[in-house]
Amino acid sequence: MVSEILLADDEATFRETFTKLLQEEGMTVTAVANGTDAINAIRKEPYAVAILDVQMPGADGIKVLREIMKVRPETRVVMITAYGTVEMAVDAVKLGACDYVMKPVIFEDILIKVQQHLRHLELREENQELKRELNGRFDIKQIIGQAPVMQQVFEMIRKVAPTKSNVLITGESGTGKELVAHAIHSLGSQNGKRFIAVNCSAIPESLLESELFGHKKGSFTSAFEDKKGLFECARDGTLFLDEISHMPMSCQVKLLRAVEHRQIIPVGSTESVEVDLRLIAATNKDLAKEMKAGLFREDLYYRMNVVGIHIPPLRERKEDIPLLVEHFIKKYNAEMGKQCRGVSDDVMRLLMNYEWKGNIREMQNVIERAVIFAEDDVIKISDIGLIGSKAIGLSEEHENLHAAVKAYEKQHICRVLNRYGWNKVEVAKALDVGLSSLYRKIDELEISVGKRRKRGRAG
Ligand SMILES: Nc1ncnc2c1ncn2[C@@H]1O[C@H](COP(=O)(O)OP(=O)(O)OP(=O)(O)O)[C@@H](O)[C@H]1O
Ligand SMILES: [Mg+2]
Question: Packing angle between helix 424-431 and helix 401-419, nearest 10 degrees?
Fold first, then answer.
């Protein structure tokens, strides 16, 4: 951590005495006699804490503070104010100073403040360290894939991660778009900062704009106070715009502005706010088609698609299936304290030939279920549930038409439930039935999967 202190005061005696005191406490001090020197110093290198006299020749303390907030906003700034300049000090706090002390300065007071600020920075660094560790969980190695198409995806991730370029990730549902977004974040300079995911299709159109860009108190009926938007919350980190094709046109215009100018305007505000972050968007739709249909702005598409990463569906990289099976068996063994060693040959044949419309998510759910039900250390056809029953011709077991239809219905609903990670709203939509009918069917057909897997949201 930078433990250097910058001290800017035009009074030589104060400067010298205080410098000595700080040095006795083991701190490194750069002392300057005017604002211009302070600005030059801060431009040259970072300081943990800056102590600035409000009134100085050259640039005054406020000017120095403004510059610090521009070039080194992480600096903790303490202002020293003389009688009659308290208002200026209050302004300084609004501009980003952390604290102020009044003249005549009591050295011990200011020393305690400096120590508190250093401790604060230390804690913040520890915190970032922790976050970095957490983010480390999304290591690229956890994305399973040996197929050449996946190797290309990894190569793209490695190349784009250190940059700040916008990324558009495309791929069918369940192919791992969010996982790839996490990997880009963790490998890039945003690591340790926040990764915020927002599902554009899950937020009502009327709220999406304020959710992304924030709002001012009173700008609409339920805006009881100022609220920061996700763009500001993800500052210096990554904002992941999931299902971007669902973003309404009005919001697309605002997003374009944010992307082009790196500035946002909160709802109900007239002032723009600078935002510096990495944007990653994802979609399982064909955006070219959406553009043709007038549902997605072309200019926004080109802005977002600076780097495009396409994740191929699982059926186009079948060689990865055995690896994924092994990966998920290990994962669920660990979670459930089981000791499955693998799957039988006929199960592997079945998994290799299955269509996997819900891609990796569907496979993960199938394996999770299999690990729950496996009684042996090898997973058998009967353990892998209804995709397995398809292989042994379940509907032929029943001559009675009603029973056969019921069995088929159960099998079909299960497959779709797995495909959508048990998200019943989406499943009902896919089956084209009402949500209450779906619940009734689940009940009637006694469908269960032990632990029901939901689609996760990270942030
Ligand atoms: N290559 C992979 N290796 C290991 N796990 C994977 C891989 N791809 C996806 N997964 C897992 O599959 C699940 C679905 O992945 P993810 O949520 O990233 O997909 P998605 O493309 O965002 O899906 P959707 O379009 O439905 O939002 C997650 O639990 C993820 O960890
Ligand atoms: Mg997703």
Answer: 130
Torsion of Cα atoms, 186 then 187 then 189 then 194, to 10°: -10
Share of the chain above pLDDT 70, in %: 91
For domain 4-132, is the CATH number 3.40.50.2300? yes
221-258, pLDDT tens digit by residue?
Answer: 777 778 888 999 898 899 999 999 999 998 999 999 99
- What φ, ψ does residue 57 adopt, rounded to 5°? -70, 165
Beta-bridge mates of residue 378 = 342
4-132 and 315-444, same CATH topology: no
Ligand 1 atom with minimal separation from the 181 CA: 18
Q: pTM for this one?
A: 0.63
Surrounding residues of ion ligand 2, Cβ less than 5 A: 177-178
How confident is the model over 429-439, as pLDDT tens digits? 999 998 889 98
CATH topology of domain 139-312: Rossmann fold (3.40.50)
Half-sphere exposure of 65 (CA within 13 A, CB side): 27
Mutate to test the pocket of ligand 1, among 141, 175, 195 (most ligand atoms within 8 A of CB): 175
For tokens 């094709």, what's the residue? 245
